[in-house]
Specification:
The complex is a heterodimer of chains A (110) and B (114). Chain A is mainly β. Chain A has no helices and eleven strands. The radius of gyration of chain B is 13 Å and the shape is globular. The chains are: A mainly beta (110), B mainly beta (114).
C-alpha cells in the first residue's frame, strides 16, 4: 500500500465547476501536508500548505482531517488554466523526507 | 532571479554506462533534494542535502546511485552501470533554511536507458 494515495483521475469538469480531490496517508509520522501542482512535462510547484484549521487561497481551499488521515483540495469556479496534475505531499516527522502521491489529473473543459 | 537549473535536460545512455546529472540550486538555498519521477507517478524522494552534508540518502534505490554536493551549492547525482529501470525524470529541488516544504524544482533531466 502506498504511503500517500490519490485517485489518478482524470477529472474532466466544465469551466466554472467546483471540483474536489482527496488524498489519504498512512504513515503515522506524517506531520506536514501540502498540495503541489504539476503541469504536463513541467516541474512541480507548491500550491498551498494544508493546516488542521483549513486554509483558503482565492478559489482554492485545503483541509486536513488527522483523525481520518486524509487531505482535501477544493477548487471553485474552475478555469481552463487549472488543468494540471495535483500532487498531495506529506512531510514526515524527524526526517527530511517528503512523500508525494501519484497525483490527480484535472482537465477543465471549455 | 534565476531558478533551479539542471543539465543535461535529456540524456540517453546505453545499459551499463555511467551518467552524471547536475543541479544548480537557487543561490542561498541551503536545502537540496533529488527525486526520481517515473511516467505517471509522483516524484520519489532519493536524497537530501543541507549545505554540503548529505543528511538523508534513504531513498537511493541501490549502491549504483551516488549524490554529492561538495561545496554546498551545485550537486551531482551519479548513476553507475545504468539499467533500463533507471529510465525516469530526475528532479532536483532547493529550498531556504527552515522552509523545506517550499521546494523550488528544476526542469528535470529525462534519462532514457536503452
Amino acid at each position: 500500500r502506498k504511503e500517500v494515495e490519490q485517485d489518478p483521475g482524470p477529472f474532466n469538469v466544465p469551466e466554472g465547476a467546483t471540483v474536489a480531490f482527496n488524498c489519504t496517508y498512512s504513515n503515522s509520522a506524517s506531520q506536514s501536508f501540502f498540495w503541489y501542482r504539476q503541469d504536463c512535462r513541467k516541474e512541480p510547484k507548491l500550491l498551498m500548505s494544508v493546516y488542521s484549521s483549513g486554509n483558503e487561497d482565492g478559489r482554492f481551499t485545503a483541509q486536513l482531517n488527522r483523525a481520518s488521515q486524509y487531505i482535501s483540495l477544493l477548487i471553485r469556479d474552475s478555469k481552463l488554466s487549472d488543468s494540471a496534475t495535483y500532487l498531495c505531499v506529506v512531510g514526515l516527522r524527524r526526517t527530511y523526507k517528503y512523500i508525494f502521491g501519484t497525483g490527480t489529473r484535472l482537465k477543465v473543459l471549455a | 532571479g534565476a531558478g533551479v537549473s539542471q543539465s543535461p535536460r535529456y540524456k540517453v545512455a546505453k545499459r551499463g554506462q555511467d551518467v552524471a546529472l547536475r543541479c544548480d540550486p537557487i543561490s542561498g538555498h541551503v536545502s537540496l533534494f533529488w527525486y526520481q519521477q517515473a511516467l505517471g507517478q509522483g516524484p520519489e524522494f532519493l536524497t537530501y542535502f543541507q549545505n554540503e552534508a548529505q543528511l538523508d540518502k534513504s531513498g537511493l534505490p541501490s549502491d549504483r546511485f551516488f549524490a554529492e554536493r561538495p561545496e554546498g551549492s551545485v550537486s551531482t547525482l551519479k548513476i553507475q552501470r545504468t539499467q533500463q529501470e533507471d529510465s525516469a525524470v530526475y528532479l532536483c529541488a532547493s529550498s531556504l533554511a527552515g522552509r523545506d516544504h517550499e521546494q523550488y524544482f528544476g526542469p528535470g533531466t529525462r534519462l532514457t536507458v536503452t
